[in-house]
Amino acid sequence: MTKAGPILTVVLAIMALWYVACIPMNVQETLTAAERAGAVVTPDNARARAEVGRFSLMLQNTDTLAGSWSVERARLPAPHQIVAELWDSTWTEEVYGRRGIVNSGSLSNKSLIYHGWVTLSATVVGFAIGAGLGVLLAVGIVHSKTMDMSVMPWAIVSQTIPIVALAPMIIVVLYSFGIQGLIPKAVISAYLSFFPVVVGMVKGLRSPDAMQLDLLHTYNAGQGATFWKLRLPSSVPYLFTSLKVGIAASLVGAIVGELPVQRGGLGARMLGGSYYGQTEQIWAALFFAAGMAALLVALIGWIEARTLKRMGVQA
Amino acid sequence: MSVIEAKGLNLTFQTNDGPVHALRDVNLTIEKGDFVSFIGPSGCGKTTFLRCIAGLEHPTGGTLSVNGMTPDEARKARAYGYVFQAAGLYPWRTIGGNIRLPLEIMGFSKEDQAERVKKTLDLVDLTGFEKKFPWQLSGGMQQRASIARALAFDADILLMDEPFGALDEIVRDKLNEELLKLWARTEKTIGFVTHSIPEAVYLSTKIVVMSPRPGRITDVIESTLPRERPLDIRDSAEFIEIAHRVREGLRAGHLDD
């Protein structure tokens, strides 16, 4: 594994930086906790310390900083605290928790597995809609000059609107039609994921060169045959690249869609954590989402490798 | 019987820098079973003329008939197979699949397709490579597969646009020899664009020398070589004399500039 070395080096570097950053980030909370435990801290009350800069606090209290990596509700929780939270809110919660799947027969609404599932289902539905729509639009754009000139600019404009501004409106509008739950989130996911698919597919469908098109012309092939025999197979590598971008965007869309609603999902979990100062909960949800995204992208990569192999691409 | 007949053919491209005369006053008759080479420097319109015959470009003046039809009608009647400079095989199709491509588009039956693939693979000496993918073949073999693809639907005209231009000379010699054998076996009419004087003289029954700006025919040489041509015919006095005449024709075209 020649890949593992560089990756591991970067991870270790980030970890080292993270642990160092915990000291100044958490210095107020660390000193307050140390004071409660009976240590001598200068200045000797939290109000006075709030007036002093982080780095001078660190310099004045070099002996009492050991607690920087075990503070509760730290501004920046240490990586091991996040890992512990991840473990607690998945395995421990489901296996030992009163509401966990072992004791209650259904997933606990305090577990990341439950919230991850909520997000995942919206992501997958949204991605399917977005990718399908993206492919259809691309086919239209490639075959119709009118669509090329009318749809493409709007597709680009659509991506310039911040999704955080648009998401609540989509939810409210759909709610007024009695649609709530998974569908509004899937719509937001689709909104984000159709774009890379359109762009990639248009490029892919247009990738055959003039010679290839001339060759089909000499066979007197129609648009249909040109599409199925040449354009579509040529676009496959482009399609998979866009699908990888698209599925990651779908996950972001689903999470953003969960922020205003607060009915479960990793987005709700992150916002909930920030309401109650549960930084570990936010970070745990964040890493869980990142892990999910990585798995989804890897899954598409796996399908891509299999498809290209079947299409005879040299390994 | 004349298969291709051009009378006073003109083609002018409108470009941003003004009109470009790609072809001016081209008159040519190609008989059935001829092997006609078009030779000349870049920009002399040899490829453009071949593309006009194929209905890929449309002349702006004069008449051009292919099998007694307009080039577009001939194209729709699948009168010719076209071979480009690059083999242009689909990487996602096997060699057999690539040869099957025109047959699928033209709606041949499955059994007929299989039979024709087998027959044309044999014709270009690629038997046994049906299930291989293009990247598993050398450049020369890929170009042979692309010739097989052009032959598969039994058009009686074969148009070839510098088909061996990207290959090295050793492979090129071998393919030239094979092409002559193939021509003798199939009795097709062949239009062949090339940059190479020896290639043109070795292959052709008729050599059309062209010159650029505007693209026009400066000489048409009827070859006196026999139809049966071993590779060493290139050392004969007759061969050298024809090559000399082609060279003279090319030089004369340049002096006009």
Commentary on this structure:
The complex is a heterodimer of chains A (315) and B (257). Chain A is mainly α and 315 residues long. Chain A folds into 2 domains: 4-76, no CATH class; 112-310, Orthogonal Bundle (MetI-like fold). Chain A is 75% helix and 0% strand. Chain A contains 14 helices and no strands. Chain A has helices at 4-25, 27-36, 46-50, 54-60, 79-96, 101-104, 112-143, 145-158, 163-176, 182-205, 210-218, 223-258, 266-275, 279-310. In chain A, helix 7 (112-143) runs parallel beside helix 10. Chain A is elongated. By secondary structure, chain B is α/β, with parallel strands linked by helices. Chain B has 2 domains: 1-79 and 159-166 and 174-257, P-loop containing nucleotide triphosphate hydrolases (Rossmann fold), CATH 3.40.50.300; 86-154, no CATH class. Helix content of chain B is 37%, strand content 26%. Chain B is built from 8 helices and 9 strands. Chain B has helices at 46-53, 71-76, 95-105, 110-123, 139-151, 169-186, 197-203, 237-255; strands at residues 2-15, 18-31, 35-39, 61-66, 80-83, 157-161, 189-194, 206-211, 216-222. Chain B has a 6-stranded mixed β-sheet, sandwiched between helices. In chain B, strands 2-1-4 form a 3-stranded antiparallel β-sheet, covered by helices on one side. In chain B, helix 6 (169-186) links the parallel strand 6 and strand 7 (189-194). In chain B, helix 3 runs parallel beside helix 5 (139-151), helix 4 packs across helix 5 (139-151) and helix 7 (197-203) packs across helix 8. The model of chain B has no long low-confidence stretch (mean pLDDT 88). At the A-B interface, helix 11 and helix 12 of A face strand 5 and helix 3 of B.
